[in-house]
Amino acid sequence: MHLVARLPISVIHRLGAGLGLLVAHWPNRQRRNALMNIALCLPHLSREEQLVLRKRSLQALGMTYFEIAYLWLRPAEQVLSLVREVRGAELLQRRKGKGLIVLSPHIGAWELAGLHLAAQGPTAIFYKPQKYLDDMIRDSRARSGAELAPITAKGIRVLVQALERGDYVGILPDQEPKADKGAVFAPFFNQPAFTMLLVNRLARRTGAAVIFMFAERLADDAGFRLHCIQAPDGIDSEDDVEAATALNRGIEQCVMTCPEQYVWPYKRLRRRPVGALKVYTGPVKDAEVFRHVDRLRA
């Protein structure tokens, strides 16, 4: 990773796109899962358009994996200089005495989005400790002053305290919760997705506003464009399903801004309602994937 981080970002992106192209053409589960998600979530696209989006998204995912070395290991000032534009920057302004919850889905360069957020002021970032590279991840995310809060009860207390101080809190909102408590099924592109209630609980407890922010990778290695989007109404609702639905609707809005940069291979629909067919199963050939999707819709 240190060697990759020394390369120009243009070379890193070409290497990543090449790896993604190989994954897109070689039958494998990542390729299958991406197509299943795209076919289920974006049924308005023709099958040919779904296949094209799958290819482009895997190329973008390859870029994401390769550029992580650059984003983690280069000096923070150099990484932040890749930001060419911030749309909706006014939404990052905190209300007096109130913190701000900033949700960054897995779109484009989410590590850059987190680094930019921490550069705006005191920030606590919710993160899942990793088996590998955990020290590197923590060091990279903390190098602009962010406080890291692990996905534990203690970490949640850190988030609450940060919001009560009027700080920023950064959360990746599109991960599937592991525990039954604190999550409900809510529609995600009209598919039932097991969805966290943490954002709702934090907003209701602290009165903090909620926005979405993600970093879109620009063409021709021109840098990144940050998007800040107001969270949909209802995200702080007392009704759990209404709140989770609003959360997913915000993620959908982000995804549709640059759908090829969303992490489509992620098993977002792995947890299923009782009696529903499993999504990520079966052969990896495209024709079989489409047949399985038709069964899921029946």
Structure description:
- Helix 7 (134-142) links the parallel strand 3 and strand 4.
- The N and C termini lie far apart (45 Å).
- This protein is 46% helix and 17% strand.
- The protein is globular and about 55 Å long.
- It has 298 residues and is α/β, with parallel strands linked by helices.
- It has one domain.
- It has eleven helices and nine strands.
- Helix 2 (9-25) packs antiparallel against helix 4 (47-73).
- This is Lysophospholipid acyltransferase family protein.
- Its main location: membrane.
Question: Can I get a quick summary?
Answer:
With 298 residues, this protein is an alpha/beta fold. 46% of the residues lie in helices and 17% in strands.
Helices and strands, in N-to-C order?
Answer: HHHHHEEHEHEHEEEHEEHH
Count of DSSP strands? 9
Form type: globular
Structural domain count: 1
Q: What's the helical proportion of residues? A: 40-55%
Distance between the termini: 45 Å
**Which range does the strand content fall in?**
15-25%
Question: What is the averaged pLDDT score?
Answer: 95
Query: Compute the gyration radius: what is it?
Result: 19 Å
What is the count of DSSP helices, taking H or I runs of 4+ residues?
A: 11
Within the largest sheet, what's the order of strands? 1-9-8-2-5-3-4
The major β-sheet equals: 7 strands, mixed
Class based on secondary structure composition and strand pairing: alpha/beta
In the predicted model, the low-confidence regions spanning at least 5 consecutive residues are none
